[in-house]
Automatic annotation (TrEMBL):
Similarity section: Belongs to the ABC transporter superfamily. Lipid exporter (TC 3.A.1.106) family.
Membrane topology per record: Multi-pass membrane protein
Domain ABC transmembrane type-1: 40-319
Region (Disordered): 338-360
Gene3D superfamilies: ABC transporter type 1, transmembrane domain, P-loop containing nucleotide triphosphate hydrolases
ABC transporter domain: residues covered: 365-599
Signal peptide region: none
Keywords assigned: ATP-binding, Cell membrane, Membrane, Nucleotide-binding, Transmembrane, Transmembrane helix, Transport
Annotated compartments: Cell membrane
Primary subcellular site in the record, as a coarse category: membrane
Superkingdom as given in the UniProt entry: Bacteria
Name listed for the protein in its UniProt record: Lipid A export permease/ATP-binding protein MsbA
Length: 613
């Protein structure tokens, strides 16, 4: 999707959100719902390991003081080694549990995002770029993994371990503790002043990464056009500008993080120097023992390391919030409703989703005074009305921009009319779920969607469990027999990304076979002969007559040969139905149709823009 990236979520809402560290931590904590037992066990193991670590300086103090008196005591040394090994084992198990929990949270978020993005209202895809939405599933969730797997536990255990170290340091030497506290407080002030900047820079970086993905996707999807127009350098420059923006935001994040890291490191080094100098002077003046100084230095390291992890975790949480905000905004985009817009005729909710069954009394499709606009300032349809009876071939003709593709979009329930109604077998579409309507409708549009995979995968996409006989029937009906015979491997042949190994006409016939396999009651064909030569066009015209014996057929066409045998032709002009009838009737009764017929309707079946599709 082209166009400028539109930020998801309202600016007022974003500006009004609490950006404090406390709110960020609370948000990250909510993400661990469903994984709290793993977090609790991992936290417990980390605390056990930390407690064992806190015991080690006391044992070391005993060893130093004992050896200072000329004694060697082996049990304390063995105990010290055992404490170290058990601490390492507890830390390894806790780390594994946290990493697994982080992967679980990311999996849950990705499942939610994928399900949400696949069900968005079509208007949202018009507003937002596909590559940017994809980056929220990939890059943003990856950034969150480290936050939820490590940062939250670091905050808890780091705080508790630091508190324990402070208590033991106060017991050993309150004066030295006061000096250490002054240096740590100075670092804390610096860290707090940088947190908001880190989060903002992280948001800008993630937005830039999303823009890179969106621009690159657009260029790769349109690569033949890019190369034909020698626009590689221009596209590379445009994407490069996005890369530079991401680089700038990343450098700003790194600069702020490095300042924070330096402040913490200075606090660590300052604390050790102060303890070493002041403590050494006090030992030399016999105001304290060497064992006390060794123990205090070890506790200082135990204090500084958890405090460093706390500072790092807070900064990481703020970075993660930039990614989470983008994810949260995507998770709140409007999706297609799963219930009817208005209640049906007292049918139970369980009965409403059922697709309308074909009857002779009502046409398969009817539009009644339908009005629609993509932009309220630019209406596209103005009171369109026509019907498509069962087992009839109805053609929709008109100049480009008359609104033909918009009619198809409304029939497929991609959009809802602003006024008027669409009926399926006599039932208003608003009383049916979109899924129920689509069960009976198949669409073959100009942009034939053929995906990477085998030919069988593409044909059987709508009916994955279709039998070989059913697949063979639609292959013959769509005129694909020669294509299957030509491809190495036949139906098992891999046809490449976007069907690159097939011609335009072959891709169109694959899409037609896929649509027919679903046995729809209404088939929509958008310019089905636009990629076909004269021989295949004549063959498809015959196929359409056969298809019309199985289901209702509505065809957008620009070629006279496609529509002259239709049971009924609807003529659109500027979003209005201006005429209707058979070919001969319209030639004598509609000036516009005569003009279109005189030109043989040989207008290219190009995609029309959002102002008059």
């Amino acid at each position: 999707m082209t166009g400028a990236t539109v930020p998801l979520g309202g600016r007022a809402e974003i500006a009004g959100r609490d950006r404090s560290a406390r709110a960020a931590v609370a948000t990250m904590y909510r993400l661990t719902a469903g994984h709290r037992s793993a977090v609790a066990v991992a936290t417990g193991l980390t605390l056990v390991g930390s407690a064992l670590g806190l015991a080690q300086p006391l044992v070391a103090k005993h060893v130093v003081d004992t050896t200072g008196r000329g004694q060697i005591v082996w049990p304390p040394l063995v105990l010290l080694g055992a404490l170290f090994l058990v601490e390492a084992a507890a830390g390894a198990v806790g780390c594994f549990l946290l990493e697994r929990m982080g992967e679980g949270v990311v999996r849950q978020l990705r499942h939610g995002l994928v399900g949400r993005l696949l069900r968005l209202e079509m208007r949202e895809y018009d507003r937002h770029r596909g590559g940017d939405l994809i980056s929220r599933v990939t890059a943003d969730t990856t950034l969150l993994r480290e936050v939820v797997s490590q940062a939250l536990v670091d905050l808890v255990t780091g705080s508790l371990v630091a508190a324990g170290a402070i208590i033991l340091m106060a017991w050993l030497d309150p004066l030295l503790l006061l000096l250490v506290a002054v240096t740590v407080a100075a670092a804390a002030v610096v860290v707090a002043s940088l947190l908001t900047g880190i989060r903002c820079a992280s948001e800008h970086m993630q937005n830039s990464v999303g823009a890179i993905a969106a621009d690159l996707e657009r260029a790769l999807v349109s690569l033949p056009m890019v190369r034909v127009h020698r626009a590689e350098e221009r596209e590379a420059a445009g994407i490069g500008a996005r890369v530079d923006a991401a680089y700038g935001a990343g450098v700003r994040t790194a600069k702020l993080a490095s300042v924070m890291s330096s402040a913490v490191e200075l606090a660590v080094q300052g604390s050790f120097l102060i303890v070493l100098v002041i403590g050494g002077l006090r030992v030399s003046s016999h105001a304290g023992s060497l064992g006390d100084l060794v123990a205090f230095l070890l506790y200082a390291s135990y204090l500084v390391l958890p405090l460093s992890s706390v500072f790092r975790a807070v900064g990481l949480v703020q970075r993660g919030m930039g990614a989470y905000q983008r994810i949260d905004e995507a998770l709140h985009l409007p999706v297609e409703p799963v219930t009817p817009r208005i209640p049906g005729d007292r049918t139970s909710p369980a009965a409403r989703p059922a697709a309308p069954s074909p009857t002779r009394e009502h046409p398969a499709l009817a539009l009644q005074d339908v009005h629609f606009s993509y932009d309220p300032r630019k209406p596209v349809l103005h009171g369109v009305s026509f019907a498509v009876p069962h087992r009839r071939f109805v053609a929709l003709v008109g100049r480009s921009g008359a609104g033909k593709s918009t009619v198809f979009a409304l029939v497929a329930r991609f959009y809802e009319p602003d006024a008027g109604a669409v009926f399926f077998d006599g039932r208003p579409a608003a009383e049916l779920t979109r899924a129920a309507c689509r069960r009976g409708v198949a669409v073959v549009d100009q942009n034939t969607h053929v995906v990477h995979g085998t030919l069988r995968d593409n044909i059987a996409y709508a009916v994955p469990d279709a039998s070989e006989a059913e697949i063979g029937r639609v292959i013959e009906l769509a005129g694909l027999t020669e294509v299957v015979d030509r491809l190495p491997g036949g139906l098992s042949a891999v046809i490449g990304e976007r069907g690159s190994t097939l011609s335009g006409g072959e891709r169109q016939r694959v899409a037609l076979a896929r649509a027919l396999l679903a046995r729809p009651s209404l088939l929509l064909l958008d310019e089905p002969t636009s990629h076909l030569d004269a021989i295949n066009e004549a063959a498809l015209t015959t196929v359409m007559k056969d298809i019309a014996q199985e289901c209702a057929l509505l065809v957008i066409a620009h070629r006279l040969s496609t529509v002259q045998h239709a049971d009924h032709i609807v003529v659109l002009q500027d979003g209005r139905t201006v005429a209707g009838g058979r070919h001969e009737e319209l030639l004598s009764g509609s000036a516009l149709y005569r003009e279109l017929a005189a030109s043989q309707m040989l207008r290219p079946g190009r995609a029309e823009d959002g102002t008059g599709r």
